[in-house]
Amino acid sequence: MPELLSYKLLFVTGKGGVGKTTVAASIALLASEQGRRTLVCEVEPKGDLARAYECGPTPFAGRHVSDDLVAMSMDTEASLREYLRVVARVPTVGHIGPVARAFDFVATAAPGIREILTVGKLCFEVREGHYDLVVVDASSTGSVVGQLAAPSGINELIRVGLVRSQTDWILEILGDPLRCGAVLVTTPEEMPVTEAVDLAGRLAKETPVHLACVVANRVLPELFGRSEEQIFNELGRPARLDLVARELDSSSELVEDVLAAARLAVTVRRDGVAHLERLRAEIAPDVPLLYLPYLFARAHGLRAIRQVARALSEELLT
Amino acid sequence: MSRAEGSDRRDRRDSPTSRPSVRPLVGRGAPTPAQDQTRHLEQLLSAKEIVVACGPGGVGKTTISASLAATAAARLGGRVLVLTVDPARRLADALGVGGLGNIACRVSNEAFEEAGVRPKGELYAAMLDMSESWDALVRMHAPDPRTASEILSNPLYRNITRRFAQGHDYIAMERLYELHEQGDYDLLIVDTPPSLNALDLLDAPARMAEFFSSRLLRWLVVPYRSRLVNFASRPFYQVADRVLGSQFLEDLAGFFILFQTMRDGFVARAEAVSRLLRDVRTTFVVVTTLEAVPAVEAEQLIESLRDRHLHLGLLVCNRVLPGAFSDPPVGRAAELLGQRSADLAEALAGRLPAVGGASHPPVEMVGRVLNEVARSFANFRLVATREAELQGELSAAHEVTATVPYHPGHVTDLRGLLDVGAKIWGDELAGAPPARPRRRSTRRPGTSTRADNQQLPEPEAPC
What we know:
The complex is a heterodimer of chains A (318) and B (463). With 318 residues, chain A is an alpha/beta fold.
């Protein structure tokens, strides 16, 4: 399996709320810092990337975050214009406004058109070699399979025409395990892990894209080893609480609150570990599982992205 | 069932406010915030027939919806249905009803009794089956059974219904309308699908109507020959033919000609669904966690509910850290514990029982544990402070806020759902283990009627 940053095209996906944008933005930042020309694209234009990099709007045309890092948002209409201009060489560029609107409508109704305009644009950037790496902040579990399956699906529905002729090279890129991969993001919780396992299965069954790695995001640090945990439990007994309170000139109730908080941290962490064990057991053994720590300090913005990128680079070294 | 009497009130609300209409009584025996919370919720769920739970993805909408439904069935009575979109078996397992589908299953009284509650009403659960619901809709609106089966067997149909933008949102609202029309339930609580944007849900019926009325759809279904003479649509077809191929367009047109036969029914229905969402009997519950991104989405959602004159009944902040984390005296105790860990370890080590071989644990190890406790507290305090700030902002957007504390593990049974329900209600459920006596207020500023339930969870059995 290739090293994560040596891929050409990475689709970062997972259940809503697990931190897809953070992971995608961090992978892209790390790659660009290592001198790779990197494009990062958000498929659902919600402005998440702009918030992550604190860089202002990221239009379809792209915005330079740094010399080697460009961020963009997907816009199927703009993608269609580009496609018509560059690939189809359609002459009626003057009338493109209403045509694009009409397409927007057909794309709403017709299966796979919007998806192929999305995936096609990303593959186009790979094929043209404009970037060393294209990182996609892809849709969540629900629609990413539809997007990645669209090129093969459309082959069955559309028998002639330019769209049809484009799908072959798109499929070749998507299905190449050395160039293209999916990064599945999850958190150490029940539902995200269940969905990640489910999505790994659907990606394998319904799309040509291989799983590059699974990222467990927001993993809590381990508080105690086994002996330490025994000591910790002993501290909770009333006599010890009173002793600690006396030593600190505090009340045993306050000390108990402090210990209860630590107990919560231990329990949350232990629950998470159980889910991560299930995750490891249920995804293919050759797929790497990377761990990213829970950020207790600021959990958004460029500083957070830098912290996650640093943690990611350490994970990639081990 | 007294709640059904309200169904005659078909008038729209004249004052588009989403503040609760009932104010807590002040003066003699003024109620506590928790009592306010309970009263508000009981009034809300007694007055409304439909509750739409919405919010960002991954915040626990399904659990909150099911908890509200279970608690309403237990305490208020009547027939309560929770309609979920959660495809996992987890909710079905928690409710003990086996597999969930479009057909509602009743949660048995035994299940409630096992959870230590004698329910006043009946709880039902159903899962939204998207493709089954679409099929039912087609059968309802197609002019005759033959057209219906032609549509259902068209290869484009499945693709289109599966991928139609906002299709899932629409179908959830449509199912809600259907169930409400049937009138089998006193209270319907619907858990909404995760959309790209939670607002899409609100616009889905209007978009569905727009889709069928669109000029572009008319272009698509006019006979192929006349397209060439239609000046307005000519450029579209020139490009479309070239890019998609005329065969595909023909197939698409063929399908839409069939689909058009359902137009009137669909449009009328979508409008009715839209009206129902604005109806005085419908309320929205916004669910969020207190993390930066979901909180921003929730705030936008609250604003647009207000813009659309939809009724916001309650804001639920889920998985909130216990109040002790942001309580200054506890924080000071934690800091002291860290600073004086070496002295404390000296004093403690000799009194602690053996760990491993030695008769007492090494002093350094005890010191490490104490340090770790202090460090962990400081970490979580940061998170709790951030949460408190976000909660303050959200509470400014909507005053009726319920807080559900972070619960380790997950809700796996009816008991768990009722416990969460009790948190939303703002009290402890009868028969639940008594709460630890409160020693001091851990309430955060800026939350007027928020449930006061942020104590640390009961200590668990020794790890």
